[in-house]
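## Example pair
The file below holds two records. Each record gives the amino-acid sequence first, followed by its structure token line.
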Amino acid sequence: MSYTVRSGDNMSAIAARHNISLQSLIAANPQVRNPNLIHVGQSLNIPGRRDDFVPAATTPQTTASGGTAYTVRSGDSMSSIAARHNVSLQALVAANRHITNASLIYPGQKLTIPGTRSSQQPVAATPSQDVRRGSQGSAVRWVQDALVRSGYMTAAQVATGPGIFGPQTDAAVRRFQRDHGLVVDGIAGPITRRALASAMEGAGQASQVSVDHNTTLHYDGSKPAPGTTRTDAWNPVNAPIQGVSGNRSVTRYNDVINQFAVGVNPRYAPRGGNTYCNIFVWDVTRAMGAEIPHWVDGNGNRVGVGKGRELSANGVCSWLSNHGARHGWRKVSAAEAQAAANQGKPVVSSWLNQGGIGHVGIVRPGEITSRGPAAAQAGGTNFNRGHVADGYGSRPVSYWVHA
């Protein structure tokens, strides 16, 4: 159904008027670069309404890749679909690469459900041997099985050369490495094998990297640190530099922020009409030992990937107001925010947009000016060094500091 924007309209009001979710409306209109900026006369696509949606037939249909076809229903999310079909969220996402943002699906979309966990054989022990193109044997077979279980290969592809590391296995390994922020070399070395083992278990674990709690590593923000570039943004990353609550320093806080190189990191690059300010805030606060979670339960407590709901920028703002205090966050002034950041304490900026999409960012060590505290952010514009007004403009901003 087509809709023409009228005077006074905004995306949330249009969604409410047509009894659909704001997310499904945004997902159905990728031509709208900024959902907060629509204009009179603009044409929008209204996806199927909640009250007239007809569920897909219950008879399973097999797809060409060997999975089961599924049609998204009102109220669905990728995590709920994965749980309902007893598959991992990672495997579901990997089997549906046409979905550019797993947080935005809408009724009527077609998905492929990969083979369920219950139908799989027990996971074999992780091999100790590195394998690459041209390798053969049981270690290659383990890698291929891991790639099938995590959705990066099909059983039919493996059947063309079981136990043989050929071009299809090489391509699948490289895709897996790219999606998980690993070195993309096509070699199933120790780090790649550990990540494959986690993916097989459906744990949604972050890539394992060496974590530095001291001060031996330093970054200037020009290049992302190893392990911080995975673009499946709903999964966490384990950054190499981490802070510890109770042992703060301005040098450490600067290094934690800089290691993500938000201005050039593909993890935060706008894509598919979506931006990732909430993910950047999640990553920095998590590395600082003061996590503002991305996945929470109904009480605002952190849960594992796919086991609760995801926090959008507005969700982060609400979480800070409703649950921040019991997790060590308190509201402060702009001047207090800059002073705290200059002491090495994690500080977050936020704007709750009741009529659309909000914004969150990081206050970093620096100098407060007429444009507000020093800042780093992801969003429509990504920058590692700037000021709050560079991201928020004249919008009212709240500040939160973690002790």
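Second record, same layout:
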Amino acid sequence: MKILTSELDSKVEFEAYIGFFKEEEIKEIVKDVDRLLIHDYVRDPNDLFYYVKK
């Protein structure tokens, strides 16, 4: 998508919203987006950082 918009005069930003993911998927997704939104599926907010960092 970034390649398609590189010829435009105005800046177009792309973001992805993900939930359950694998590390290999993240490595591919971040190549094509400007911002990555990660939903957490943890019951205890104290576990959030570990979940996202994992």
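Notes on the second record: Helices lie at 2-5, 23-29, 48-53. The CA atoms of residues 40 and 46 lie 11 Å apart.
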